[in-house]
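Render N-acetyl-gamma-glutamyl-phosphate reductase in 3D.
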Amino acid sequence: MKQKVKVGILGATGYTGVELCKIISRHPNANLVFLTSETYADKRMHEVFPELRGVCEHKLIPLEEGIERRADVVFSCLPHAKSADTCLKFLERRIRIIDLSADFRIESPDEYKKWYGNNHPNIEILKTAIFGLPELYRPRLRKSKLVANPGCFTVSILLPLIPLIHAKAIELKDIIVDSKTGVSGAGRSTKVTSLFVEANENFTPYSIGREHRHLAEIDQELSKAAESEVKIIFSPHLLPVNRGILSTIYVNLTKSSLVNKIADIYQSAFKKSCFIRITGNDIPQLRSVVNTNNCDIGWTHIAGTNRLIIVSAIDNLLRGASGQAVQNMNLMFGFEEKTALI
């Protein structure tokens, strides 16, 4: 029998870390060997999250101790800036990394500093990172030593837009994206806006226009697909639900007759993708994707115009984070892509 891949998780007690623990614990080809947490060091995982009793009962260790541990692959759920420095220590020991922070997503060090306020700690290592969206970079991910898992909003925007850009079916100007995310997208740390009284029975826009940090990676990947500069208008909103992202995307077709080709474009682009569901005029909704690694994509056309409205839906903690991270791990180690995710 083939030896199981040894897996470590840094920052295991955040929302993405917990989801990784659940997935890896049921993965037939993987074995959890260490979990780190600064807040809960020396406790066991099921003591912090009782639902993991009998599923994941590993002792949590400090990050400093985790850095010395051996593994075949390490998932980093650490905050931006802190993650990069830590990942380097594993890469130096030839341990493969899947980073869920933004530290390796943005190819330009100047853009990284602009959006995150820090100089990148290692530009040479940054050059080796592969953007972890399987539908775009599947062949390169199979050989990668360092994967930069995309942001949750990014996934919900790139998957529906890039096939249309490749097909030259949409105009590159005036792309407008209106996204709604569940409260878990803000992470597990205490924030006033995430408090029940603040979020419940409320609906709040934030970082609207050109302010949200995911724009750096969104514009980067759209521009690469178009082979010219693309800058979208992006307005995220906080939705009073636990999890999920629904993005409504407004674009102009290059020709109105292309509306009859949209389904074919998507089917061709995603024919090898087990987690993309093309719903057409059956517009996606959150409850259809929550607790799955799927991305549902539907659309409607405004009669008499070139305007197309696309809607995508994902689970922000799975397809937008931990599920996709494991999807990337499966590719890196030659496992079936959907292993432990269906």
